[in-house]
Amino acid sequence: MEMVSWSALSAFVQTWMQKTKTVPWYLWGIGTLIGYALYYRIVVVKKPKIFRYKELKGSIINRIFERMTTIREPYFPTFFLANTHLQVIYSHLFGNYLPASHFQREILPLSDGGTVSLDWYYGPASASDPDFKKRKEEQSSKPILMLCHGMTGGSHDALIGRMCPE
Asked: Rounded to whole angstroms, what are the CA distances from 156 to 58, 70, 104, 150, 159?
């Protein structure tokens, strides 16, 4: 796809406006909507990029990714929140917050001395709830949704907490 220079586009618009003299306001609106729809479809909608090491071939991580078929499909964000920054701002302004007490932490030691913490969510009640163990057993056979936070985040992060149903 060849890029059009802004100066050429500007010259075209100026010439067109001189020939037509005035353009009704609704044509500007229709043109803007069509332009945004094209931008959304061409620039915004993309397949997710998955970064993983090739040495991990046959590992559990690759087996998990092989079973996640939807991760290879194009991602269509909300039409009016096409930018990731807008999505974060929107979630902070209009989202609800789930307290960290709703998670049960499992710490896995790694062979290199590091650790991985998994925070399991079994519903809105905390781990001290008497029905918690029963609900945990009932949900053990259900599919798992994996939410990954950013570099410095965790289950305490508002974006993760807002993705869990109450």
From this structure: 32, 26, 12, 12, 9
